[in-house]
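Data card: per-record layout.
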Amino acid sequence: MRSIMRESEKRRRLRVLLIEDDTLVGMGLRGQLERLGHEVIGQAATHAQADALYRTGQPDLALVDIRLGGHDGIEVARSLLAQRPCAMIIVSAFSDEDLVRRAGEAGVYGYLIKPASLESLRAQIEVVLKRFAENEALRAEKEKLAQTLEVRKLTERAKGILMKRANLSEEDAHRRLQQESQKRRISLADLARKIIESEELISGG
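The structure for this 205-residue chain is written out next.
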């Protein structure tokens, strides 16, 4: 047990939200999380409480009971994840492949069978954090690629306008865009948008 405590000191201290309507189960999970060196920012017993604590507490990790006061815990998790990304673990007394599949489809990467040992909880947290980080990195890369393509599209369109309006070659039009971007201290994308908007205003469409 001491080895787990020593290892936990080396790991990041997480802000954890418990979404569990059973007080005793919640107390048990809180104790285990604190023994692992994490901070429990609150326990929600209803969907409304979960929503409020999730928005105000900004947790790093959420443990969500599969059943929450008549609500489907997976759907509760899905609605919270629609607000912002967060590592999540579904907590259930049953091992069910369909539930695991649904949880994954909702964006939840962990599934913990209760009652869980301290070691099981620790291992599940590590797996979930790793998968969450990988997914966030992939999402960020996709967003970056989409932004790059959008900038390229805007730049090409603005360059075409300059070539037509100022009778410039493609190379000169591109150089003009770069120079104006630096001169005005705005991004190439913002400059391109201004040129496109001006052209649409002049041409009436």
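Known properties of this structure: Residues 118-165 form the longest helix (48 residues). Helices lie at 2-10, 23-35, 47-57, 73-81, 97-106, 118-165, 170-184, 188-203.

See the next section for split statistics.
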